[in-house]
Amino acid sequence: METTGFERHDHGACIRDGVSAVDARCRELGLQFTPVRRRVLELLLEGHRALGAYDILDRLREEGLGSQPPVAYRALDFLVKHGFAHKIERLNAFVACACPGESHMPAFLICRQCDKVAEAEADMRDGRLGESAAAVGFRIERAVVEAEGLCPSCQGAAA
Amino acid sequence: METTGFERHDHGACIRDGVSAVDARCRELGLQFTPVRRRVLELLLEGHRALGAYDILDRLREEGLGSQPPVAYRALDFLVKHGFAHKIERLNAFVACACPGESHMPAFLICRQCDKVAEAEADMRDGRLGESAAAVGFRIERAVVEAEGLCPSCQGAAA
DNA sequence: TCGTGAATTGTGATAATATAACAGAGGGCG
DNA sequence: CGCCCTCTGTTATATTATCACAATTCACGA
Question: Would you say residue B24 lies in a domain?
Fold first, then answer.
């Protein structure tokens, strides 16, 4: 289990790699990685932050890539459906996936101060929740796991 | 760790006990358990299902207890704030708390077929997510844990 | 008991998030 | 070319949630 997002890293590479990984994956799967979809992914990769659909729509509008909600929602649906982005239910917002292509049950660490979001792997079917689900005979298919708190640098800033 | 909601149980008692537990707790804490708040809690306890704010508002309207959204939202905010109910982010809906009064980090098992919701205890600060959060120095304060899948009886029905 | 301030409720308006429906554009392929 | 399929553009609308402010009710001490 690993996390990304709070450590410092080469963020330019982070965007480039994210986009090209998705690009490759789309080629593999025969999916169309259109300009709107690509741009939305770039926007999501820009900060390790969750962006609302309307934030994204505003950016698209500025750039002449579309002006109505369905444009943004369709691109986001595409990205989410294929695992290139995730929806953060707690925030009604979206983040780029930290490891596109790998199938996983993501969990998120959301800083309430700076709004950064890190992605971790946490398959709930193992572990204690999985046990208690199994105990009552519930079969877990998907899970939303969103932890909220303070990231390391905001803890430092508070002190 | 225990769950409730999928086992069969005396549901009449379930509502009565839920309401009176909250009633007692409000008395303890000097909170006003007003008619609207009581009624909303009863509605939430009726099925072990998540109800949307507007579903609740419709019921309140029928009963002459209020007709505008803030009436429902304020009652729900009260119940959630004091731990008598929880919001299911995945569904934008609300459920009564299975063990009001006890402070806890609830997790939910949501059946995608029958919409029933069971509550389990799952403190994310322990376990593997907690470890990986600790590893990057993230301090978890709250967590949304919502597992979706099939409850025992819906698995049976599917077969 | 009464006054006072705080909490609660009533109501209209509006914000924020999300989807439906259908027409048009474009590309691959017979 | 003509057909089909996917993607895009656009209007309209649905769903979820909050703001603002007036009216009322309630708790509590004088």
Answer: yes
Asked whether residue B91 is domain-assigned, the answer is yes
Chain D nucleotides close to protein (CB under 7 A) are 6-13, 15-20, 26-28
Would residue B1 count as lying in a domain?
A: no
What is the pLDDT confidence band of residue B159, given thresholds at 50, 70 and 90?
Answer: low
- The answer as to whether A108 is a domain residue is yes
Amino acid at A56: I
Chain A residues with CB-CB distance to B139 below 8 A: 149-150, 155
Chain B interface, best mutation among A87, A111, A115, A138, by max B CB count within 10 A: A138
Q: Could you give the number of structural domains in chain A?
A: 1
Q: B118 near A136, Cβ under 8 Å?
A: yes
Instruction: Specify whether the CB–CB gap between B82 and B31 falls below 8 A.
Output: yes
Distance in angstroms (rounded) separating the CA atoms of residues A60 and A35: 11
Structural domain including A32 reads 11-158
Please name the residue of chain B whose CA is at the shortest distance from the CA of residue A92.
B89
**Tens-digit pLDDT profile for residues B39-92:** 999 999 998 899 999 999 999 999 999 889 999 999 999 999 999 999 999 999
